[in-house]
Amino acid sequence: MDQIILQILNGLDKGSAYALIALGLTLIFGTLGVVNFAHGALFMMGSFVAVTVSKLLTLSHKVVDETRTDFLGNPLQVDVPYIYDWFGEAAGNVMIDWAVPISILFAIPIMIGIGFAMERGLIKHFYKRPHADQILVTFGLAIVLQEVIKYFYGANPIPTPAPEAFTGSFDFGVAFGFDPNAIIYPYWRLVYFFFSVVVIGAVFAFLQFTTFGMVVRAGMADRETVGLLGIDIDKRFTIMFGIAAAVAGLAGVMYTPILSPNYHMGMDFLVLSFVVVVVGGMGSLPGAVLAGFLLGVLESFASMPWVIDIAPGINQIIIYLVAIIILLTRPRGLMGRKGVMED
Amino acid sequence: MLGLEKKDFRLMLIVVVLTLLAPFILNPFPEGSELAQFNAGYPDLMQRFVIFGILAIGFNILFGLTGYLSFGHAAFLGVGSYAAVWMFKLLSMNIVPAILLSVVIAGLFSLVIGFVSLRRSGIYFSILTLAFAQMSYALAYSVLTPLTGGETGLQPKASDVRLFDGALEAGENATPSLFGLAMRDTYEMSVGSWVFTFNFGYYVAAVMMILAFYISIRIFRSPFGMMLRAIKSNQTRMSYTGLNSKPYTLAAFVISGMYAGLAGGLLVAMDPQAGAERMFWTASGEIVLMTILGGAGTLIGPVLGAGFIKYFENIVSKINKATLEQWFYWMPDGIEDVMIAIVYPFVGKGWHLTLGLLFMLVVIFLPGGLVQGGQKIAAIFRRKKSSDAKDGATTPAE
Amino acid sequence: MSKSNFSRRGVLKTGAIAGAGLALPQYLRADAHAGFTNAPGDSEVVLGFNVPQTGPYADEGLDELRAYELAVEHLNGGGDGGMMSTFSSKALDGTGILGREVKYVTGDTQTKSDAARASARSMIEKDGAIMITGGSSSGVAVAVQALCQEAGVIFMAGLTHSNDTTGKDKRANGFRHFFNSYMSGAALAPVLAANYGTDRKAYHLTADYNWGYTTEEAVRSSTEALGWETVNAVKTPLTQTDFSSYIAPVLNSGADVLVLNHYGGNMVNSLTNAVQFGLREAQANGKNFEIIVPLYSRLMAKGAGANVKGIFGSTNWHWSLQDEGSKAFVQSFGTKYGFPPSQAAHTTYVQTLLYADAVTRAGSFNPCAVVEALEDFEFDGLGNGKTLYRGADHQCFKDVLVVKGKENPENEFDLLEIVEVTPVEQVTYDPDHPQFQGGELGTCNPGA
């Protein structure tokens, strides 16, 4: 029982990342009709915003310490962050410690900016082109983005820890009457789960309860008619692209303490999030979220030791297996609409 | 001739001449010169050009004609490779049984996957094929290690059974051959300071590609090909006329799977090692890129796309800082450093970056792929020469 | 077209002499002149450095490349000579190899065996490389080693740790200086027993591929021999990035030690996850819960940040070693690049020197002569103390370092501290040890 609760927690956590990326993908696909293979790269860019912020906060000047020596036997040059000079050491340390949450403030405008630039500069010209062209050009863009990141940050993962206050883990077991240590879960992962629920809720509320959202939803359903009504749907769609980019970016920022970012993490997530989107049903936002959590939980269950003992290798293929079964039993995924992306 | 229209026959002839003379064409720079870096006329790369050409031609029969975008084609290549290596291990180092079996196994495999996946269309079909391929990759890499060699891959060993071959002499390696002629037999010709390499394996693969190309032309021009195009343009209308399109698409899927199997078999015939990475989704993606980059639906496009990508992967990735220093040594010091600093991020370890940029440029400016680029250039020339350039583009774009 | 041949440079040389100025085609065959693949000319010799430049191990690959460039510089008489002055064999004199200037070509393995073989083939067929070296994973090493055997050139493996490279997939033309899974297990087990006691229950998480299997087997058998019990061993997909669902059940499984048979990105992520799940602070069976990483790499330890503190593992070499060879190498590498070399850089630098030295002692580039010179060659002064290149399986036998993540690093490179230098006797095994069975070395292949 405790194991099952633990794996559900794990699955929800994993699912939140899938759901956030899939949500952005579906927003772009649903509004603009564009299959964005660069979406994984946006997720990756988000986490590198966090990396950059924490690098900037620790930007240092060198002070030579004559008492110590470096690996070659020369006097050691100690790095002193500028932030110490400006705010004093204590306040500086707090800011460095909270680099990841601070990055959220930067990530939102930066990612929206990147989203705008992508849509206006590139994607706009591909609305009328076949999906294959969209896939190819965004895939090319994804490669370029990740190579640029690699050029500046190298190929190895860069540790970007969560604030001190969130390290360690919470013992659920005790709270619910199990043995101590039975259900332990890291604080930051709980934060991530709640964060993603909030973001998903915000996106849905935005679409549901604002006029802007209503127009966008109308545009998703029937773009031409909305255009005929004299509404400048293109501009709104650009904004939606920016929002989708920001959602992916935030997912990336918050993910950095869980997974040290590296330049190819976007590609690692890309295929899975496509599977999630399709299983959810192309163009369906609730479908994307539902499929994200569902696949996350199933993946966690499949990696339990006794499951692997019964069916070796199941943990490797579970997501694809589930995708196949769902697509064969439900032709358009869990909540897909007829006629979308079927030709 | 050969059951081809005049235009197709001309194209066929061009392809035959180009493939047969490839050792000359691909080695335009004299040995030892700075530009020799760009020579592609060595056996490994020439073989890859034609083998991936076969793969792309086959993929094009499915994607170019029916519009069904398979995102798991690399699985058939991988299965074909494994089948061929097992033939090497069990029967003989002669490539004939290996290649036959690789085509058959890939055909069967694609029959099963196609039968299931073709129940859906559009992106749902793509994801189904992707899912099957990723499962094949994951299992081949881990659980199926006894069958596939896992991470280290499957290779023939001196100690294998090989029913039809005699025992190897001490120190002799198991090398794939065609009735005694080893695939790696190479014959070199030097003219002045040029060296041209003629490799037996290349010519085996080249003949296969010419055959594959010929069959593909025949399919494109056949009633069957017409039927496939009809499926692409409007499947609903087809079904209203009372035609069941599925047997046709399934046939196209299996044919293109067999092409992939043939490519897989040839790959291990040239280099007897099969690794699971060749089934990873990026490998499938590469096939899609090759086809679209060259020009999907055109006859010659996929082959060009395959050559383009393989050239990049093998030539540009090998340029290092020392090479750059050689190129720019004649410049004044300051400018030399600047030039190296500008070029360096795009070559060697940065070859992915260049490839990504080129993809984007091609897709943005040449929606029809490289073939369209060729047509545009040809059109410019023709306009200069005369005005009656209407009949027949250089390549029969669909 | 009778016999296989890979050479072109040899042809070129003879062709140039015989056919100078002639426009008529010259039909020649290399094997009549060379005797072995890619016989170098009189003025220069080409080595092929095949390292991952893209993909997850790109940083290690680039560090290997730096070491190669340094080695070439030293061989050609440039720089301060590095370990050439501390090397016990004094055959190398800074005039290249056998009087020929050393040139090199580079390629990208992408950490894929197919791409690595394509790249190595192009070096052999196009650039006339006489020796291929490099790589940062065992799959690539095994694949390229087999290729070099077929082509008839020498392969000097880079970073490859799986038993198979010199076990069931060993080849006569291939040599490995790096240590292996068995040695890691044999070196670690006594240290673990001394620090954590002999009554421990271990839980293994193992990367689901060949290297993972051999490492798990090695660590299991050596720890079990000292009284440990293995509670469970779970295989994790190589492509996994989040290991939470594998880590979560560990604490409640009755185990009190977690062994992470992971490398590279896998190791960084699984270790980070394990620390997040509080395993470091946890108590189990009345003992402190412990984590072990059998194969450490400093570059990867950097990715895991503070999580590595106090965690035991093994490594082939570390820059803080104080013997003359290591000091000389760190000095010349550090001076040139500004940071200390990684173990990948060390092993590739040493492999290049060893190859050059073997050629010089043999007096020939012929692969069979090189194999003979390297087999059962004993040397010293290359950073690992007295070392033997065993003839039976072409594996180097030398001391193994047991290290631990440093609690208070003094600078960003100071991540690991050496706990013990395990003497070579303790990690030596029979060539037909069960973990290494099933392979055949064969005989050397000179190619053409």
In short:
Chain B has 398 residues and is mainly α. Helices cover 63% and strands 4% of the residues of chain B. Chain B has a domain at 6-280: ABC transporter involved in vitamin B12 uptake, BtuC (Orthogonal Bundle).
Please characterize this protein's 3D structure.
- Chain A: Belongs to the binding-protein-dependent transport system permease family. LivHM subfamily.
- Chain A: It is a multi-pass membrane protein.
- Chain A: Keywords: Amino-acid transport, Cell membrane, Membrane, Transmembrane, Transmembrane helix, Transport.
- The complex is a heterotrimer of chains A (343), B (398) and C (448).
- With 343 residues, chain A is mainly alpha-helical.
- Chain A has helices at residues 2-32, 39-57, 82-97, 99-121, 131-153, 172-175, 187-209, 211-221, 223-228, 233-255, 265-280, 285-302, 305-310, 314-329; strands at 60-69, 75-81, 169-171, 184-186.
- Chain A has one domain (2-59, 101-329).
- In chain A, 69% of the residues lie in helices and 7% in strands.
- The longest helix of chain A is centred in the first third of the chain and has 31 residues, at 2-32.
- Chain B has a domain at 6-280: ABC transporter involved in vitamin B12 uptake, BtuC (Orthogonal Bundle).
- In chain B, helix 5 runs antiparallel to helix 11 (246-270) and helix 8 (200-221) packs across helix 9.
- Chain B is globular and about 75 Å long.
- Chain C contains 13 helices and 18 strands.
- Chain C is α/β, with parallel strands linked by helices.
- At the A-C interface, helix 1 and strand 4 of A face strand 8, helix 7, helix 8, helix 9 and helix 10 of C.
DSSP summary, beta strand count of chain C: 18
Q: What sequence of helices (H) and strands (E) makes up the elements of chain A?
A: HHEEHHHEHEHHHHHHHH
Count of separate DSSP helical elements of chain C: 13
Number of domains of chain C: 2
Sheet with the most strands: spatial strand order of chain A: 1-2
- The number of helices of chain A is 14
* Beta-strand residue fraction of chain C: 15-25%
pLDDT averaged over residues of chain A: 85
What's the shape of chain A?
Answer: globular
Can you give the helix content of chain A as a percent range? 55-70%
Q: Tell me the greatest interface.
A: B-C, 56 and 69 residues
Q: How many domain regions of chain A?
A: 1
Question: Structural class of the secondary elements of chain A?
Answer: mainly alpha
Strand content of chain A: 5-15%
CATH superfamily of the largest domain in chain C: Response regulator
Gyration radius of chain A, rounded? 22 Å
Q: Can you tell me the residue ranges of chain A where pLDDT is under 50 for at least 5 consecutive residues? A: none
Low-confidence stretches of chain C: 1-33
CATH topology of the largest domain in chain C: Rossmann fold
InterPro entries (chain A): ABC_transp_permease, BCAA_transport_permease
Keywords (chain A): Amino-acid transport, Cell membrane, Membrane, Transmembrane, Transmembrane helix, Transport
Membrane topology (chain A): Multi-pass membrane protein
Family (chain A): Belongs to the binding-protein-dependent transport system permease family. LivHM subfamily.
